[in-house]
């Protein structure tokens, strides 16, 4: 379970000086805010996965591209995340996340990865938060 006040205490007690992590206070505080936002999203949508997958109609979209520019779907995801006050997130990171999780296949039409089997969304049972 996420404990924002524990992380807040660690921020004030030296987390910013920990050489093993990004030491930007704003980014650390954004991690706290974003985690809170994810909890709210989970409560409202059943799971964070249900929320993000809704932006691609709950199935992977195939968009062969030669450029890796953001899409209307990643723009929409960003806009929705901003309504939950998420910080340090942009449309490019949304698109990259969508690619990394199999929501979007943006490989060029000639890319060898297109011949590999396609990943289907794994349905995970929802747990109470």
TrEMBL record:
GO terms for molecular function: DNA-3-methyladenine glycosylase activity. InterPro entries: Adenine_glyco, DNA-3mA_glycosylase, DNA_glycosylase. Gene3D superfamilies: Hypothetical protein, domain 2 (1.10.340.30). The keyword DNA-binding does not apply. Keywords: Glycosidase, Hydrolase. It comes from the Bacteria. Its EC number is 3.2.2.20. SUPFAM superfamilies: DNA-glycosylase. It is an enzyme of class 3 (hydrolase). Coiled coil: none annotated. Pfam families: Adenine_glyco. This is DNA-3-methyladenine glycosylase. It comes from Candidatus Burkholderia pumila.
């Amino acid at each position: 379970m996420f404990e924002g006040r524990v992380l807040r205490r660690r921020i004030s007690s030296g987390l910013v000086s920990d050489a093993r992590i990004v030491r930007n206070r704003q980014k650390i505080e954004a991690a706290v805010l974003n985690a809170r936002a994810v909890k709210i999203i989970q409560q409202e949508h059943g799971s964070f996965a249900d929320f993000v997958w809704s932006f691609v109609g709950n199935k992977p979209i195939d968009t062969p591209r030669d450029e890796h520019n953001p899409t209307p779907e990643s723009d929409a995801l960003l806009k929705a995340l901003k309504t939950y006050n998420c910080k340090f997130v942009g449309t490019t990171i949304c698109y990259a996340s969508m690619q990394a999780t199999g929501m979007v296949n943006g490989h060029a039409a000639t890319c060898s990865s297109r011949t590999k089997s396609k990943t289907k969304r794994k349905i995970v049972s929802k747990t109470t938060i």
